[in-house]
Design goal:
With 251 residues, the chain is of the alpha/beta class. The protein has one domain (8-240): Rossmann fold, CATH 3.40.50. 30% of the residues lie in helices and 19% in strands. The longest helix is centred in the first third of the chain and has 18 residues, at 15-32. The site of 6-phosphogluconic acid has 15 residues, from loops.
């Protein structure tokens, strides 16, 4: 294991096992903090099974909804009710049934100007700083308890794409992305690496045969965005058998 070599890789059998494992990590983070809990969700298809699990009675009864706040690591400039809207997906699957509205913090792409994504990014940055209570992140006091992440086939994570100058941003907490190089090819807003790193745990979910090629590159240490994303605390990669590279036990 290279590059992001403080990560802890957990091989799981399939998507259901991945969702259950991710749910237990999330519950452990809510139990470890008796105050306000901050969870940063991710978009894409990988977290869907987890979100569906959190909506079930077995799990929703174990989450202290009144003190858990939900954020999103990146958002596309699509309408809030568009299936491609990352926070909209989480709200539809579980948040709208379970969480107080005031505890759901979407990135405001539904109302911001897609021609000027940095302006919408600045709004979310202010919301994060207001929640955190400061405009400088303190490594001893992470912003998030848990940050969920995925990996794109090109090695991107959140909306941080290979070669994007945003990867080297270390002052701003949130930046605009004028155009994504994966579907949907729309402007986006994304948290930057230092902001995503400000967490007790960063948890990647990577599943499916189509992710084996990029995981092979990542585990070989290639300098790709997903290898640059790591927590100031624990970094956990949940990988299913389909995605796990052959020399790591993949089938
Ligand atoms: O807005 C996004 O696109 C996501 O934040 C993105 O980083 C996602 O996590 C990966 O593209 C993996 O997507 P899948 O889970 O659909 O493979």
């Amino acid at each position: 294991m290279a590059a992001n070599d403080n990560r802890h890789v957990i091989a799981v059998t399939d998507g259901a096992a991945m969702a259950a494992t991710a749910a237990e990590h999330l519950l452990a983070r809510t139990a470890a903090n008796s105050g306000r809990v901050a969870i940063c969700l991710t978009g894409g298809s990988s977290p869907k099974l987890l979100y569906q699990l959190l909506a079930t009675e077995a799990y929703r009864s174990r989450i202290p909804w009144e003190r858990v706040h939900w954020f999103i690591g990146d958002e596309r400039f699509v309408p809030a009710d568009d299936p491609l809207n990352n926070m909209g997906m989480a709200q539809t699957i579980f948040l709208n049934q379970c969480a107080p509205t005031a505890n759901i913090h979407p990135i405001p792409t539904a109302t911001a100007d897609p021609a000027d994504p940095d302006r919408g990014a600045a709004l979310y940055e202010r919301e994060l700083q207001s929640f955190y209570g400061a405009d400088t992140l303190d490594q001893a006091r992470p912003l998030f308890d848990l940050v969920l992440m995925g990996v794109g086939p090109d090695g991107h994570t959140a909306s941080l794409f290979p070669g994007d100058p945003a990867l080297d941003e270390n002052a701003r907490w949130v930046v605009g992305v004028p155009r994504a190089n994966v579907v949907p090819f729309v402007p986006r807003i994304t948290l930057t690496l230092p902001t995503l790193a400000s967490c007790h745990e960063m948890l990647f979910e990577v599943s499916g045969r189509d992710k084996r090629a990029i995981l092979t590159r990542l585990f070989a240490g290639e300098n790709l965005p997903a290898n640059r994303a790591q927590s100031s605390g624990e970094t956990t990669w949940l990988v299913d058998r389909e995605a796990l590279p052959g020399d790591f036990g993949g089938q």
